[in-house]
Amino acid sequence: MKTEIHQVSLGFNDCYIIRSKGAIMIDGGTRGEAFRKAMKRIPMEPSEIQLIVVTHGHLDHMDGLKESKS
């Protein structure tokens, strides 16, 4: 499987989904309709994310982590 990198614009910030044999999300960002639309566009389910990397502890990088794994 080829490696895909998706930039997901969440309005205030972006997160990144790296997908190959599994899926990694870099920064959780804030969630809402933009995240759900991006997951449909990729297409993938948030439950496919196997690893989340948070680059630092600001809310705009981690506020939506729970939603991304539900």
Q: How do the SSEs run, as a string of H and E? A: EEEHEHH
The strands making up the biggest β-sheet line up spatially as 1-2-3-4
> What's the Cα radius of gyration?
11 Å
Uncertain regions spanning at least 5 consecutive residues: none
The helicity comes to 10-25%
Bin the strand percentage. 25-35%
- Number of strand segments: 4
User: How would you state the average pLDDT, rounded?
Assistant: 81
Largest sheet: 4 strands, mixed
Count of spatially separate domains: 1
N/C terminus separation: 25 Å
Give the overall shape, derived from the CA principal axes: globular
Structural class, by secondary structure, is alpha+beta
Oligomeric nature of the chains: single chain
Helical element count? 3
Describe this structure in words.
With 70 residues, this protein is α+β, with helices and mostly antiparallel strands. The protein has one domain (4-68). It is 24% helix and 30% strand. Strands 1-2-3-4 form a four-stranded mixed sheet, covered by helices on one side. The radius of gyration is 11 Å and the shape is globular.
Pick out its properties.
alpha+beta; four-stranded mixed sheet; single chain; 4 strands; 24% helix; 70 residues
Write the layout of secondary structure elements.
Blueprint: E1 4-9, E2 14-19, E3 23-26, H1 33-41, E4 49-53, H2 59-62, H3 65-68
Parallel strand pairs: 3-4
Antiparallel strand pairs: 1-2, 2-3
Précis, in short:
With 70 residues, this protein is of the alpha+beta class. The chain has one domain.
